[in-house]
Amino acid sequence: MSTITQAPAKVRFAPRRLGHANVFVGDLDRSMAFYGSVVGLTEVCRERGIEAGFLTNGNTHHDVGCMQASGARRIGRDGHVQIHEGRGARAGLNHFGLEMENEATLVAAYERAKAAGLDIHRTTDHQLSHSIYVFDPEGNLLEFYADMMKEWWTVFKPEADLISGEWNPTATAPTTQSFYHPDPEINEVADAVFRPLRIAHAALVARDFPKLLAFYTDVAGLDVLRAAPDSSWAVLGGSTGAHTLTLLPEAPGRPAGLHHTTFQLKDDRALDEGLARARTAGIEPELVLEHPTKRSVFVKDPDGMRIEFAVERASAFARRQPGDEALVPYLG
Ligand SMILES: [Fe+2]
User: Fold this and answer.
1) How far does CA 299 lie from the centroid of its chain?
2) Alpha carbon of 95 to ligand 1 centroid (Å)
3) CA nearest 286: which of 302, 271, 297?
4) What's the pTM?
């Protein structure tokens, strides 16, 4: 896996928020069923040519993308290499999708990145969005994307073959029009175990916490919302001010990489009812958290990836308590 080693001056992509998580999965059908019936997202597209599926409740074109793990090279439209051979051999994080204001802000950041010598992994035309992919210094892949249309469902059809091709960010003048929906209608999945509104944030464990924090502020351009003076955690936000990413240092029993992804529930009732349905369905949570900063439930997906369903308090992050140390990875 290629990783960037240079974390040059202030590139600052400065995305709005987390749009989606894309994960490699051991069994695509099994995971699509889980993210539908348990996580409570609606399947909107299967991109058969790359063995991928996408789910959303309407917040963006997808909150979650799943891709069959195989390690084989994935070719998109126009012979474009979407996944290099050897990548995605096992289940785990593929990338996070971070939503930009528009194509012009994306291309401006791309030009700053190129000028600073940042290694750009690939630039992709997904039709519904244009995307720039960059590895963080620890090998986690980020996608900075700008939506290019409002009617994403005209591309994300239930059965698609190949959607994506190569994109040259400087070939044409970028648009300053913003296509994300500022206040989308959310369609809850009526018979799902949990019924979240949207993906909210992700939590990553760092091998080198200061270095990764510097990357996510200086290159990704997220803002530190809260951070522990002892570097035991940091909570970062996008330009909307919403909690987008939690960073944690590596610790015994807490390996580097993805710690969890979090889905926002509407209210306490949604959490209580989801928890009751989970237990009825034989899903025992890893942790049920009752804390001044939030209430949440942690479960694991079929590949063991941790998912949180949370109701955050207005006072979120403000009232850590003595004895919280063991809960730190779950509080972010
Ligand atoms: Fe993506």
Assistant:
1) 17
2) 7
3) 297
4) 0.93
Separation of CA 255 and ligand 1 centre (Å) = 24
Residues 6+ away with beta carbon under 8 Å from 317: 225, 226, 235, 243, 293
Dist. CA 279 → ligand 1 center (Å):
32
Triad 121, 127, 133: Cα angle to 5°? 15
322 C-alpha vs ligand 1 centroid, how far in Å? 39
In angstroms, the CA 129 to CA 60 distance is 11
Q: How far is CA 315 from CA 16, 66, 144, in A?
A: 22, 33, 29
Structure tokens at 139: 């090998």
* Ligand 1 center–CA 39 separation, angstroms: 18
Distance, CA 131 to ligand 1 centroid (Å)? 8
Q: What string of pLDDT tens digits covers the 332 residues of the chain?
A: 444 445 445 899 999 999 999 999 999 999 999 999 999 999 999 998 889 999 999 999 999 999 999 988 888 888 878 888 888 889 999 999 999 999 999 999 999 999 999 999 999 999 999 999 999 999 999 999 999 999 999 999 888 888 889 999 999 999 999 999 999 999 989 999 999 999 999 999 999 999 999 999 999 999 999 898 888 999 999 999 999 999 999 999 999 999 999 999 999 999 999 999 999 999 999 999 998 889 999 999 999 999 999 998 865 555 566 677 778 888 87
138 contact partners, CB below 8 Å, separation of at least 6:
3, 206, 207, 208, 212, 256, 257
Give the distance between the most distant pair of CA atoms in the chain. Answer: 57
Distance (Å, whole) CA 170 – CA 317: 41
CA of 143 from ligand 1 middle (Å) equals: 6
CA of 78 to the centre of ligand 1 (A): 19
Residue at token pair 């940091």:
234
Q: Which amino acid is at 275?
A: L
